[in-house]
Design brief:
By secondary structure, chain A is α/β, with parallel strands linked by helices. Chain A is built from 19 helices and 24 strands. Chain B has 2 helices and 8 strands. The chains are: A alpha/beta, B mainly beta.
C-alpha cells in the first residue's frame, strides 16, 4: 500500500487542483451569471483510470426538485463531520457562496427562491450526456451504480423496475449493488439479474439464509488501460430488518466486516492494482468499515443520500458521496501505478437540467417507458401553496401532509409514516400530480393499516426507531430517518440511550398526556409485517388532496429535539 | 472464503472430537456469575486468541447465527447475558480436533451481550463479547 505520507502529498496536490477546476469553479460561474454545460463538465484529465459513480436514483428518470436536509444530526464520532453538517455550516465548511448554484444544489436554505433561478436537477437523459462526455474524454472509465435504482416512482412500481433496468442497461452501467431492489421479491430480482441485466449485481455480504454462505457475486475485476481494478459490492446490510424479510426470505445480509476483509485480501492476492468498494452501507457505516477493513482504496458510498463536494480521507481510503435522485454524478480520476493509488482528482458534477442538454437517445427511451402510463402519471390531483419536502432526520412537510391524510381518511388519533430518505420535493404553486404522490410513497408494501396501540407500545416504537438513527455506534444504526408522526407531540433527546430519548408524549390536538396503559387508534403505512391490510397509501393521499384541493400547511411544532 | 471447512460441512458432519452440549430447560436458571465461575474455576479471563462473530443487529432474534473460533482451546462456553437462561452451550474439543471453532444459532430475547469464553490447555481463560441488537425494524430509508 501507499504510505500515509506519499498519499497525503498526492491528495494535497489533487485538492489544490479541485480548488481550481472542481467545486470552487461554481462560485465563479455564479458570479458570471452563466452556467454552461462545458463549464459543468470541465475537468483536467488526471492519472490513468476514471470511476463514474451514481447512486440512489430512486427511479427518477425526469428532472426533479430535491431539497437537501435541514436536519442531519451526527452522534458520537460523526458529530460535526460531513455529512452531518447542513445549511450555513455546510456552506462555510466547503467555502460556498450563499445563493450560488452549489448552495442551491447542496443545501436547504432559500430552496424555493433558488430553485426558480437554477431550475430542476437530474434527469437520466442529462446524466447520459454527462456519462458520454466523461467516457469520450476517458475511455478507461468504469460506471458504477450504488443501488436504490429500481424503486421510487410510479413507473418503476408499475413495471416492477423494468423501466430502470432498461435505462441502466442503455446507460452502460458496469456493475451495481442493491437495497430497495429486493422489495420486488426474490423471484423478480433473480429474473432481472439472471436474464436482463447487462452487468453484474454485486453483493459480497448477501448470504444464503439457511447455510450462511455467500449467495451472490462478491466482486468483478475490470482491466482498464493496463490497470486491474476490483470492484467489490456491498448491499444494504440491514435488508431483512428495515424492509420486509418475507419478500426475500432466502437471503441474509449484514455488514460482515470479516467477510469484506476476506474478499479484499482475496482480490489483493490475485494481484489487482486498485480495490474499489461499491457500497450501500450508508456514510457513517462506511466510514467505520473502511477504518477497520484494510486495503480498500476507494469507497463509493450510498444509501444515506449525502452529496459531499470533496472526497473524505479515512486512513488510506477516499470516500466519495454522490447524492441521490440523479442530482449529481461523481467523476474520480485516479493515478494508479505499480499496484498503488498514487493520487486522485474528483468532481461532484451537478446535473442542472436546464444547463445540460438531454441525450436524445436516452430521452426517447425514457419517453417510451412512460408512454403507456402517461395520462395516469400526469393527472393533476390538487395544488400546493406550501413547499413539500421530506428529507431530514425529522418530519418534513410532505410527511405532515401524508400524516394529515392518513389520520383523516383512516379516522385515527395518531398517524405514523416511515422516515425513508427518498421522496422528491414540490415547490409552492406546483400542481400535485398522481406521479408526485407516488414519488414520496411508491413501494410494494404500501397498505395503510389501522390498528390500536397502547401508549407503551407507541413509546417503544419511537425509542426503537430513534436508536436506529442516534445510536453512537454506526453499526447499530439500522434504518432511515426518524419515524414521522401525526397527532402526537414528543421530545427527542438525541444524546440519550435507548429507552431514555423520548419524553413529553401528548396528543397534539388536545395536549393530553399519553397514558402508557391506554389504547389509541393508530394508522400508518410501510409495515414490514406480512399480510398487512388497508388501502394503498397513494390512494389515501389522493383522496385527501382531492378533498382539500389546495395544500396549505401550518408550521408543525409537535416535535422538540434536544441534546444537540 | 479462507476457511478450510465450510460452515455447511461443519454443521452436517461435525469434525473430530467436536461435541456440543446444550443446556436447555434447567429447572433453575444459573446466573451469569455462577456459570462463569464454574467454567473458569475463578481464573480471570484475558483478551485475544478468541474471535466471536455475531451480527450487529439480528435479522431474526429467534435464530441468530454466532461463531466462535479459539485456536488451542479445550472448551468454549457461549452465554447470552440478557436471556432468562443465559447458558447457551459449552463445546469441548478433544486432542484430535482439527480446529477449535463452533458455529450455531441462538435465540435472543432482547438486545444484549453475547459472551464467549475459551479454556486453553494450560487452564487459562480468554473472553470475547459482542452486543447484538434485537429491534422492531421497519422504516428502512
Amino acid at each position: 500500500m501507499i504510505t500515509r505520507r506519499e498519499f497525503l502529498q498526492a491528495s494535497l496536490a489533487a485538492s489544490a487542483i479541485v480548488g481550481a477546476s472542481g467545486v470552487g469553479n461554481w462560485s465563479r460561474l455564479a458570479a458570471q451569471q452563466a452556467l454552461t454545460q462545458d463549464q459543468l463538465l470541465q475537468f483536467d484529465d488526471f492519472g490513468n483510470v476514471t470511476l463514474i459513480h451514481i447512486t440512489d436514483l430512486h427511479a427518477q428518470l425526469k428532472p426533479i426538485w430535491f431539497r437537501e436536509p435541514e436536519w442531519n444530526i451526527g452522534v458520537g464520532d460523526a458529530k460535526g463531520q460531513p455529512p452531518h453538517v447542513v445549511g450555513k455550516e455546510f456552506l462555510d465548511m466547503f467555502k460556498i457562496q450563499p445563493g450560488s448554484p452549489e448552495a442551491y444544489a447542496l443545501t436547504y436554505e432559500d430552496f424555493a427562491a433558488l430553485g426558480k433561478a437554477y431550475g430542476k436537477m437530474g434527469g437520466m437523459d442529462r446524466v447520459a450526456t454527462v456519462v458520454k462526455a466523461i467516457r469520450a474524454a476517458r475511455p478507461e472509465s468504469i460506471l458504477l451504480d450504488g443501488g436504490d435504482t429500481w424503486h421510487g416512482s410510479m413507473t418503476s412500481f408499475l413495471t416492477k423496475g423494468q423501466d430502470m433496468v432498461n435505462v441502466m442497461n442503455a446507460l452502460g452501467v458496469d456493475a451495481m449493488t442493491s437495497h430497495w431492489e429486493w422489495t420486488y421479491g426474490t423471484e423478480r430480482v433473480k429474473e432481472i439479474v439472471e436474464t436482463q441485466l447487462n452487468f453484474p449485481f454485486l453483493g459480497a455480504n448477501i448470504f444464503d439464509a439457511e447455510w450462511d454462505e455467500p449467495a451472490f457475486e462478491p466482486y468483478q475485476i475490470f482491466e482498464k488501460g493496463g490497470v486491474r481494478i476490483a470492484v467489490i459490492g456491498q448491499a444494504f446490510p440491514y435488508m431483512p430488518i428495515a424492509n420486509p424479510k418475507w419478500m426475500f426470505p432466502e437471503y441474509s445480509f449484514g455488514i460482515r466486516e470479516e467477510r469484506m476483509q476476506e474478499v479484499v485480501d482475496e482480490v489483493r492476492a490475485e494481484g489487482v492494482d486498485l480495490v474499489v468498494c461499491l457500497s450501500h452501507n450508508g456514510f457513517d457505516v462506511d466510514r467505520k468499515m473502511v477504518s477497520r477493513v484494510k486495503g480498500i482504496d476507494v469507497i463509493l458510498t450510498g444509501h444515506t443520500h449525502d452529496a459531499v463536494p470533496e472526497p473524505v480521507l479515512i486512513g488510506d481510503t477516499i470516500l466519495i458521496a454522490s447524492g441521490s435522485n440523479g442530482k449529481f454524478v461523481s467523476r474520480v480520476d485516479l493515478d494508479v501505478r505499480d499496484g498503488k493509488m498514487m493520487g486522485f482528482r474528483h468532481k461532484l458534477i451537478p446535473i442542472f437540467s436546464d444547463v445540460i442538454t438531454p441525450d436524445a437517445d436516452m430521452a426517447a427511451l425514457i419517453d417510451a417507458e412512460r408512454e403507456p402510463f402517461k395520462a395516469d402519471l400526469e393527472e393533476q390531483v390538487g395544488t400546493t401553496e406550501s413547499l413539500l419536502y421530506r428529507r431530514g432526520n425529522f418530519q418534513g412537510t410532505w410527511d405532515d401532509l401524508i400524516c394529515d391524510a392518513v389520520r383523516s381518511e383512516r379516522d385515527a388519533q395518531i398517524a405514523m409514516s416511515p422516515g425513508v430518505r427518498w421522496g422528491t420535493t414540490l415547490m409552492p404553486g406546483d400542481a400535485i400530480t398522481r406521479e408526485d404522490i407516488h414519488n414520496v410513497t411508491s413501494m410494494t408494501y404500501g397498505a395503510c393499516y389501522r390498528t390500536e396501540m397502547t401508549g407503551e407500545t407507541i413509546k417503544t416504537i419511537l425509542e426503537d426507531v430513534a436508536d436506529n438513527i442516534f445510536n453512537p455506534d454506526p453499526y447499530y444504526q439500522q434504518g432511515g430517518d426518524m419515524v414521522r408522526i401525526g397527532g402526537l407531540a414528543f421530545t427527542c433527546d438525541v444524546s440519550q440511550s435507548i429507552g431514555n430519548r423520548i419524553s413529553n408524549m401528548a396528543l397534539a390536538d388536545t395536549g393530553e398526556a399519553i397514558d402508557a396503559a391506554k389504547s389509541y387508534t393508530v394508522a400508518g403505512w410501510a409495515s414490514v409485517n406480512e399480510g398487512t391490510e388497508g388501502p394503498q397509501i397513494w390512494d389515501v393521499i389522493e383522496a385527501h388532496v382531492r378533498k382539500i384541493g389546495t395544500v396549505k400547511l401550518s408550521p408543525n411544532t409537535s416535535v422538540s429535539v434536544t441534546g444537540l | 472464503m479462507t476457511m478450510t471447512i465450510s460452515r455447511r460441512d461443519a454443521i452436517l458432519a461435525g469434525f473430530g472430537g467436536f461435541a456440543a452440549a446444550a443446556l436447555p430447560g434447567l429447572g433453575l436458571a444459573a446466573t451469569m456469575e455462577e456459570l462463569t465461575t464454574a467454567f473458569t474455576g475463578g481464573a480471570a479471563p484475558g483478551e485475544g486468541g478468541i474471535t466471536l462473530t455475531a451480527p450487529e443487529i439480528a435479522e431474526n432474534g429467534n435464530t441468530v447465527p454466532v461463531e466462535v473460533n479459539a485456536p488451542g482451546a479445550v472448551a468454549i462456553m457461549l452465554l447470552a447475558a440478557g436471556n432468562p437462561e443465559p447458558a447457551v452451550a459449552t463445546f469441548t474439543f478433544g486432542p484430535a480436533a482439527g480446529s477449535q471453532r463452533a458455529a450455531t444459532r441462538i435465540r435472543l430475547a432482547k438486545t444484549q451481550d453475547v459472551i464467549a469464553m475459551a479454556k486453553m490447555a494450560d487452564g487459562s481463560i480468554v473472553q470475547a463479547s459482542s452486543t447484538v441488537k434485537v429491534t422492531i425494524g421497519g422504516c428502512g430509508g
